[in-house]
Amino acid sequence: MNCPCGSALQYENCCQPYHLKLKLAPTAEALMRSRYAAFVLAEADYLSETTHVSKRKGNGKDAYLQSAKETKWVKLEIIAADFNTVEFKAFYLTQKFQTAVLHEKSNFVLENGKWYYVDGVFY
Ligand SMILES: [Zn+2]
To answer: What is the pTM of this model?
Structure first.
């Protein structure tokens, strides 16, 4: 299948190696894409593990699993990315099947060679 992150690559050549911990996401953007794909696929472990430890409270595995199951994600659009921030739009369907958008600029941190999601601001 095509990777849910919208890269046009096959999932096994894109975000799956990150989800399976075979590879580390090399950039903040790669981590962001792989986290979006993890939301689509309800990979709650991955979402929890790639959240910075200072922000895991309230963002545990169960919360991620619930969030992933409740939201029907449609597509991801990366607006801008630099070393440690990614601005994106993530489109999803509301319960009334209308398309809505989450527009966020996320902050990431690189620690011991691993990228983590820290927090974000919404537009
Ligand atoms: Zn991907």
So the answer is: 0.95
Phi-psi region of 58 (alpha: psi -120 to 50; beta: other; left: phi over 0): left
The domains located in the chain, with CATH, are 11-122 (3.10.450.50)
> Which token pair is 104?
């966020």
DSSP label at residue 114: E
* Per-residue model confidence as pLDDT tens for the chain (123 residues): 999 999 999 999 999 999 999 999 999 999 999 999 999 999 999 999 999 999 988 778 899 999 888 899 999 999 999 999 999 999 999 888 899 999 999 999 999 999 999 999 999
d(CA 19, ligand 1 centre) in Å: 10
CA of 117 to the centre of ligand 1 (A): 16
Ligand 1 centroid to Cα of residue 43, in Å, is 13
Question: What's the CA-to-centroid distance between 14 and ligand 1, angstroms?
Answer: 4
